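One such given next:
>
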Amino acid sequence: MKKLILFFLCSLIALTAISNPLKLTDSILLKSPNGKIAVVFNNKKGFNYSVKFNHNQILLNNEVDLLVNNHPSFSECTKKIKTFKRNSVNTIINVPVSERRKQITDQYNELIIQYNGPYSICFRAYNNGVAYRIVTSFKDSVYINNEVAKFNFRLPTEGWLPLIHKRDDSDIFHTSYEEAYPFVKIDSLSNNDLAYNPVLLKQNNSPKIAITESDLLDYPGMFLKGTSTNALQGVFAPYPEQEITTKELYPETLVTKRANYIAHVSGKRTYPWRIMMIAPEDKDLPNNDLVYQLATPNKISDVSWVHSGKATDEWIININLFNIPFKPGINTATYKYYIDFAKRFGFDRIMMDAGWSDTKDLFKITPGISMDTLTAYAKEKGIKISMWTAAVTLNKQLDSALDQFNKWGIDFIMTDFIDRDDQKTVQFYERIAKACAAHKIMIMYHGAYPPKGFNRTYPNAITREGVMGSEYNIWSTKVTPSHDLTLPFTRMLAGSFDYEPGFLNNANNASFRNVEGAPISFGTRCHQLAMFVVYDNPMQIFSGNPSQGYQEIPFMELLGSIPTDWDDTKIIAASVSENIITARRKGNDWYIGGMNNWAPIDQRINFDFLDNGNYTATICKDGINADKYAADYEITNVFINNQSQINIHSAPGGGFLIKLIKK
């Protein structure tokens, strides 16, 4: 009987996917599960689609095409539909290393249109966005000359775009993905203005729209350029035809000539998802999981050895330690000191950043370092060691280097200075992740494009940079509180990022200075502390000075106790570039982080999201003088339940952290 019922259910599901005749003049409609978002397809003149929210059009006649060398283009084949089918999906994704939550509800309505020819297109409508991807079925491999992804906005549009600043004679597609997010009008951007994604866009009386991508594998990433109109056009780096490797201290591979195509691919494949997140409220954005949902599931099977963590890093402060009986530097004594610090304050690892070896040869260990001594000492203390590498060098010495890391007990490495996302470089990411997985090593990419779902496909690629973070305080004035408050609504939409917070030198706008060896952050101490909760990153790195940390024991004990993976996340309040309050649960306990820009703010925190019961709350907030002395803070303890409310005042560039332990 059970088999009969199962057969009936499978047959019923299959019926929803049976081919349906459709005339070319017909429009096709796809709605989100809650009915608020609708996608309308038009096949009368090529292929385009429009997007509505609550019956109001927000995107109009968006263009899609794929130009394949010596073959008809996608648009040429859309003149006749062969079949189309609909699916409704509502399932659960279990997340092995949870940036926001252990389980993600994956609910959407799907429409797949098959044309007469080697093309089909798949659209999905979610309650918080729309995504599409092209699928091809050519017999042999093909060269992709270009892809068309044009986003036309119905109303005048402005937004936050990380515009790339090209060096005079450099390749425009060579970038570290570390830019600010200026607020600009879209029609002011020409085709010379290029941004990487995600970008966040705003129209009057409409929800915000974020454009990004997911499942970027064996294909170049999407940039977006202006059109001098109310539209943005997708741009893709052509394939690198000629390259050189620089001879600088930190070597990089630069493209000196690009081909006249963007990718050489298998004829039968899916292409990356083009995503439009739709957010009626700002607080809907930092919790949007579409990029993860749309990525290819885990390719490495056993991920039991992949785990979150929290590390120290010495590079940003230039190892400027004090109150110690030895000369600090890249030496065994210094790294022992960092291991002791990590053990004392609840970190599980240290990072040995650039300098532990010759940057061009991972087997030329810097004199003064004994890896055998350090690895034995770290093992004795229960602390892991992580190591920096240059991407060029790691690529050259990959197998032997990973073998050596295994011998040392290294389970996490960083590789740096990649700075591209053309097809060849995207292939590099996957090759390195696979090799590391075979050695049970986690990896973080620096000088890297945002993850775009790669961490679902390769969970050992646990995080990456692709953000203008703490290090910029050494040499610039760009990392302002407003910048910090833009990141959760832009860069973070594409996955976690390694900002490296935790500066213990803090300043207001007037007192900020660039100080090498003793860098200062814009904003308050609590602004820095809150980043450990507000920013997604399952491998957070503390970049402050341990010698200062030893002088502030309660503060460092609080910082060190913050988890880096979470069972659930809620955004309590949010406004792009202005403020955010994020609450995250780990087991029965909650951690709440709040940050604001240069405008001081008074906020009432309501705890109605808590379960029944009492909680001990440790509150770290801006001190009474934090507006002038930004390192001023106070730590208090109170009892809280789900009926409680508290008022918190945050200074300019301020923040707070609340740790709630259930009794």
The first helix runs from residue 2 to 15. Residues 172 and 630 are 39 Å apart (CA to CA). The chain has a mean pLDDT of 95. Residues 22-294 form a domain with the Beta-galactosidase; Chain A, domain 5 fold (CATH 2.70.98.10).
